Task: structure prediction
Amino acid sequence: MNKKNSVSIHNLLSFLTKFVEGRISYIDNENRKDPAFMHYYNEIVRYWNRLNFILSRTTNLNNKDKKLKSDTIAKYLYIIFCYIEEKTPLDKILSEINIKNQDLRFIKKLTRFSFKRALERKPTIEKLSLIYAYPTFLIRHLESYMQKDFLKENLVQMNSYDMNTDMFSFFINNLAIKNGEELNILLRDLKDSKIEVVPDNDFSLLYYTLLKNKKKIILSHWYRTGKIIIVDKASLIVASVLAPKEGELISDSCAAPGIKTTLLAQLTNNRSKIIASDFSYKRTKEMNSLLKKLSIYSVFSLNSDSITPVIRDDIKFDSVLIDAPCTGSGALFSNPELKWRQNFNFLKQNMILQTKLLNSGINNLKPGGILVYSTCSLYAEEGELQILKFLDKLEPINLPEWVSNGYKINDQYIEGTGRLYPSIHSTKGFFISKFKKKE
Ligand SMILES: C[S@@+](CC[C@H](N)C(=O)[O-])C[C@H]1O[C@@H](n2cnc3c(N)ncnc32)[C@H](O)[C@@H]1O
Result:
């Protein structure tokens, strides 16, 4: 558990109060640097439905006459999290926060609360939703495609987060580190700074280290000078599935903040032409700084809408990467707030965008050109079912064997599609597909 102080708790309760009121606020850098704040904020949001369920059973929240104020709700959710989830002794929790007489009834009920008893007679989906802390929408959607135990394994994996044992990955920028000797100096330097690293089994320049070393890495000369980039393995897999070649004209149509763009440039030794477009001005600016920092000069960045590209009609690409905007249902580990935005409208909104982006991406591809379409989503609607709409224009290409099968649609796998699952690959949940445009 992270060490907290009165400032962490005060800030935490004020951010949780805003979340209770439905106002998701940007967490400033000061709070981001406070591990106790980040731990409690992320974990309380991650288990939001479960904690609120316990709150409803330990207060008169349903009684409109006795409506609790949002700051009291935030305080009670914090107490529930510490007491039920982290098993912190009650007297320790109460010594940290300001308790009033009217809180005593809630505290007494909390000490008698039994989760097992409270779940009795709940329908299965609701039970799963409360036990694993995911919206019923997500569970209903996934259970038609995943076996029950496999679904549970993935739900658990996307919740687990331990600063002391979890790892993050970083990639060596092969455009900046010229030879094996320089790589050895880098690795030796990390070792001298007590940063233990482990190489990845599939990618030679990908390494892992403990999350607690992240700050040291970010402050290191290697990171600041663009010799190391923090990337997840899924991004590297997507970029390498495209298999870009030197001299090619490549479109990265949803590019910012540019992680996969930079990997495409590295995989082609800065010798391809990559048009990297993104709709968001702020994210395009972030991408531009990243490209500059990593000495990447083979990328032309555009702040534009890829549905109606600003490229001349007669220019056709050798390959197109569409790393499309999506619900992020495979990335809930790193973004727990997103859990509670999973609903039909959000999914529908993303599906419409994805169909339009695919349509225009395929149109911009030359015959025989390569399309890679990916999303960090676990929903078939943002993966296999999107691809089905375009199969008359596409021929499947096999994916590497370490990408697992995608979902079966009408009892059949769709060739050219695959998935990364959190419980198998220890990455975000990703849909990946690769096709050739028919001649
Ligand atoms: C999943 S993110 C891309 C991540 C990026 N490929 C990377 O590896 O860093 C999706 C991106 O699509 C962008 N986007 C959404 N709608 C778009 C559109 N119509 N045209 C271009 N970009 C769009 C979003 O701004 C967002 O940056």
